[in-house]
Inverse folding.
């Protein structure tokens, strides 16, 4: 794929933007005025062409709606100016920009790390668009994006991914996702960066220490976005993303992080560090910013899907308890999301008009226990009352059509969603929904949960229909009127760029039911 698009010096069009033509009347002598459409601005520049490195971090799009989408880039200067700069952007229906539909200018400065974010409005539903940015006579890469549909939709496909530790290996999975032409959007479930990922490992990171300051986090994103596979994935598909813990600190929650995540002597005050990590994420990710900083939001894909994205990490999560604190874990008021987000989620689930509801969030929802012992209290098992309230919302839908997506645990799972696995019969269609858990792009299964213990525990958890702990990869999720299917793709060696992801397995659920079925037939 040709990754950079350049314009020759002197070949730039000139136009006056923002001028409305004179109004006309039917007979030239009065009557109703007919307002003409506002002309679309064209890029104007006559100076020396800027360096090829101006748009070194590529382009991205995200948070698509039926009439708009977020467009993103960053300007890289050898010597940053002291004042803000004005960047031109344009959107077209074709890659040659002969059929332009929107354009304008926006400013960026050092205050937002020279990142550029535009909410391009006035677009058509379910339509493919191309976009690019201009500065100093230099064009960025040409990106492509896709708005959400309205009305009837026969089929939707998404890539689902999470957990990309830069120093562990190459982003082969991102490259494979980029190569697909059947993806409506990439659903990224968090751990886009790792704050603890220092200078060691297979690929050296920047800075060579754990992130604690705003500059640290900005440098970490900048290094991440030099990866070619990641750049091309962003260039070819819109992304809908949420953060998990590592965008700030390991095992973070609303007001802190557990023992190995944050230390004030080393990392400074928690609130300052948290604010720095969140600011850098908002600067570098193609997400639609909200005034109060929340990242929980919803998307409608016609009559087929209500997509709900949650923050089970930093908005309202209470501190994680240890495995033996059963009384605290089972407290009725315990919450993973906060009361306001729980209320909002229930409203989205119960009033949505899509045939399916998909909840994209951070941590595994289905129980993973040894008897009554919770193996990982960082996931929904540590917040059972909050999980029950979500399941109650699922049950209030007219049909069983709820799917939960998760990442975080660096492994692959297909689960039927129950609150208590005791006495549950697998495939009985008595679950509240199903869950598909994506493996890490490069991150390995955590050492804190011994694989042998997990394998023993799964035997007493009949709702877990399939799992795999060792492989890296991603999911392709397909939704149709009749069923939803998840295909897992794994790759053998993340330290070899030529490694190709291979289809591993697939499981599906029929609409109106909650039993998972395995199939060898991949969706594409």
């Amino acid at each position: 794929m040709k990754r950079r698009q350049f314009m020759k010096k002197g070949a730039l069009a000139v136009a006056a933007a923002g001028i409305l033509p004179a109004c006309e009347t039917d007979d030239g002598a009065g009557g109703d005025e007919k307002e003409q459409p506002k002309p679309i601005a064209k890029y104007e520049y006559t100076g020396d062409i800027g360096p090829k490195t101006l748009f070194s971090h590529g382009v991205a799009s995200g948070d698509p709606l039926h009439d708009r989408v977020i467009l993103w880039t960053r300007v890289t200067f050898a010597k940053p100016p002291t004042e803000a700069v004005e960047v031109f952007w344009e959107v077209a229906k074709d890659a040659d920009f002969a059929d332009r539909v929107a354009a304008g200018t926006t400013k960026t400065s050092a205050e937002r790390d020279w990142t550029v974010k535009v909410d391009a409005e006035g677009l058509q539903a379910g339509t493919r668009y191309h976009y690019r940015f201009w500065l100093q006579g230099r064009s960025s890469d040409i990106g492509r994006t896709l708005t959400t549909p309205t009305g009837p939709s026969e089929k939707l496909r998404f890539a689902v991914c999470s957990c990309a530790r830069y120093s562990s290996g190459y982003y082969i999975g991102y490259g494979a996702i980029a190569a697909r032409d059947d993806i409506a959007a990439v659903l990224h479930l968090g751990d886009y960066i790792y704050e603890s990922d220092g200078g060691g490992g297979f690929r050296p990171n920047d800075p060579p220490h754990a992130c604690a300051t705003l500059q640290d986090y900005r440098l970490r994103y900048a290094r991440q976005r030099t990866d070619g596979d990641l750049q091309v994935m962003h260039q070819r598909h819109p992304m809908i993303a949420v953060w998990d813990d590592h965008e700030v600190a390991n095992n973070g929650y609303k007001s802190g992080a557990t023992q190995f995540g944050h230390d004030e002597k080393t990392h400074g005050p928690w609130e300052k560090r948290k604010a720095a990590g969140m600011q850098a994420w908002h600067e570098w990710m193609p997400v639609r910013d909200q005034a109060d900083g929340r990242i929980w939001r919803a998307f409608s894909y016609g009559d087929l899907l209500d997509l709900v994205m949650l923050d089970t990490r930093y908005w309202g999560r209470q501190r994680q308890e240890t495995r033996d604190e059963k009384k605290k874990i089972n407290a009725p008021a315990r919450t993973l999301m906060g009361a306001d987000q729980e209320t909002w989620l229930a409203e989205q689930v119960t009033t949505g008009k899509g045939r399916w509801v998909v909840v994209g969030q951070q941590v595994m929802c289905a129980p993973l226990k040894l008897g009554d012992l919770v193996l990982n209290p960082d996931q929904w098992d540590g917040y059972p009352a909050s999980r029950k309230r979500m399941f109650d919302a699922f049950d209030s839908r007219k049909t069983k059509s709820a799917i939960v997506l998760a990442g975080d645990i660096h492994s692959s799972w297909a689960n039927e969603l129950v609150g208590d696995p005791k006495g549950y019969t697998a495939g009985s269609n008595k679950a509240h929904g199903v869950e598909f858990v994506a493996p890490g792009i490069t991150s390995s299964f955590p050492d804190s949960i011994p694989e042998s213990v997990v394998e023993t525990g799964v035997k007493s958890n009949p709702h877990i229909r399939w799992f795999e702990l060792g492989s890296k990869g991603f999911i392709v999720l397909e939704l149709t009127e009749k069923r939803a299917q998840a295909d897992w793709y794994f790759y053998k060696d993340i330290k070899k760029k030529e490694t190709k992801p291979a289809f591993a397995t697939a499981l599906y659920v029929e609409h109106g039911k909650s039993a998972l079925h395995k199939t060898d037939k991949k969706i594409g």
Summary: Residues 161 and 230 are 12 Å apart (CA to CA). The two ends are 21 Å apart (CA to CA). The first strand starts at residue 59 and ends at 62. DSSP finds nine helices and 26 strands in the chain.
